[in-house]
Sequence to fold (397 residues):
Amino acid sequence: MNLHCNGTRQSGFKKAVTGFEQKVNVLSDLLYAVRNRKMLGRISFGPVSISTVLNHLRNYMATPGLTRREVKQIRAYYAPYKVSTLSHRKVKAVTGRFSPAYLPEEMFYGYIDPYFNNRSRAKGLENKALFDRLYPGIPMPKTIACRINGYWLSPDYQVLTLDEVLSLANAEEAVFVKKADNSYGGLGVVKASRSANASTGEALSKALSELTGDIILQMSVRQHAGLAKFNPSSVNTYRIATLLTAEGKVRVVMAMLRVGMGDKAVDNFSSGGIVVGIDPHGRLRSTGYDMKGNSTTEHPLTGICYAGASLPSFDRAVKLAKRAHPMLPDFRLVFWDITVAEDGEPQLIEANLIAGGIDSLQWVNGPLFGRMTRAIVREALADSDFPGASENRRKRR
Fold:
């Protein structure tokens, strides 16, 4: 990013002052967060304690600070709520961009997400083995069988033997085996394929020996060429965040494209994948990022340029997310992963009902809620114990 395109130059003294100021602000931010540690205590779904705060903050200590002016802008934007500037620093370190409206992660995970979503019900309803029942009429990869509580079941939930399951798998060139619950970041996803040395069933049997708990077995998705061109080995998806408003409308908050790397079958950010923002008009943005914060304007392996690349059936994927969301009204903020089959039909891969990752979305698109940020914060934190909330309640009276 060219910060001095107008030809002006920053003096060495000014750079040194700015650098010192940023380092001081890292330490002051740490002290500020410790004093207001309630804002950080819920990130890990655990009790509020100084050790919890320090464990979270140590990952940010190497991240450059902000200028005094930027810190003031953040404090003023979120006043009277007392937020840290850690998320803002992380975004700026990765992208070079600054806005006071970036949503602090501690505020999102600790307060906004649990306000919008019923966490006590999420564990069972995020189980992929139940998706056929939870989302009737929503297209998704065809289920071959699922294992729930140790029982193998058919797509219509009739008991099968393991031999019957392996026989069904043998009819396919490849199948996807997925942990149905407690899975994240592409962990517990295995592609079992027929080879010269083994049948699909034999490959599946080997994969099952390494997976415990509930499992879903699905047919392999033949994705649209417009998605496969980015990386053909992975099932690439749109991550679409939607908000069910108080008026009962479904609003798209933000979207991005997730693309895998190398020969991996998954596109997850934490598994080495790349994310690229999608603008409100459904156009792919120009810059993508990996989990380490490395930026690229084209896929490192396929060389496909992001800017201007067509996105197949993105508008239909948005409609799918909007149609599916009211089916689970206990969750007002949902992060959907949707791919597109070769015939152009969007298919639901996963519904992230709680704690959807916001760091990558903010890297590629900007502040999560954009112009809605202040209204969202006021609604979600009005009756909370977030630092500064009591002051806000006094002002409302």
Observations:
- The chain has a mean pLDDT of 85.
- The longest strand covers residues 250-259.
- The chain has 15 helices and 13 strands.
